[in-house]
Amino acid sequence: MAPREVFALARAVVCWWWEREEFWSREVVWGRRLEQVMAGAVGRVGDRVGWGFEQWRLLLRDAVVFPEVVAVARALVDPRLQEGAGAGVQGLLRDRAGAQEFAAVLGARLGRTWLAEVEGAGSGGPLTLWVGAWVRQRRGAAPT
What we know:
By secondary structure, the chain is mainly α. It is built from eight helices and no strands. The protein is elongated and about 55 Å long. The two termini are 25 Å apart.
């Protein structure tokens, strides 16, 4: 994957978390960071005339989640983490094959040990889809 693709995927993963109630119900870092960023932004630029709620929300989100985007991007290109993603997968491949393991290790790296539970809840997000595709690709390329 090209660097811009890795960063785009990492951003999609983290923005998916931002939209999930399951994530926010356990998250403790982003709330404090959001307050700090909002206070700094309003203090420096004031109440920008013409900026709607959506523009502020996207600006603040991207500033708040950036450290996690960088950490996820690093994890996506970490060969040790990639190898661990599909190591325990046996039998038929499912869309979530290896995603729980990857999310658990990623959660430990991010200080959010509950991340695997959030990733496993509901429909699969970008991380689950990427891990499943990576495992299928790796299995297809493996000699038989």
